[in-house]
Write a structure and sequence with these properties.
Elements: H1 13-30, H2 44-56, E1 60-65, E2 72-78, E3 80-87, H3 93-103
Antiparallel strand pairs: 1-2, 2-3
Length: 107
């Protein structure tokens, strides 16, 4: 990890904002860099149940990855405004899909 050489409290306000922006960009770029989302880890039965329940309720579901492949993206269309859910590889994608299936299950 890089060592901070400048105390941000001693900087002018605009320089402090710029430094904060650079640090935030660096953190985002390095977050989960060593982990990649992989749909081959998904239990096929759970995936099938999620697809079946979402589509049976009249919605569509799309599966993808973020540009860098570091996060799962699940898009739901037809349940109000379309929305994306992001699931990090450090989270359990199977648990997410089970919850998704339960949310769209017919009573």
């Amino acid at each position: 990890m890089a060592k901070k050489t400048t105390n941000p409290n001693n900087l002018p306000n605009d320089a402090r904002v710029q430094l904060g922006g650079l640090q935030q960009t660096s953190r985002r770029a390095n977050r989960h860099k060593d982990q990649h989302a992989d749909y081959s880890t998904v239990d096929p039965n759970i995936l099938l149940r999620a697809i079946t329940n979402v589509t049976a309720s009249g919605c569509a579901v799309q599966f993808g990855l973020t540009k860098e492949g570091s996060t799962f993206v699940v898009r739901i269309v037809g349940d109000g405004d379309p929305y994306n859910d992001f699931v990090r590889p450090s989270e359990d994608i199977n648990s997410y899909l089970e919850a998704l299936a339960a949310d769209f299950a017919k009573p």
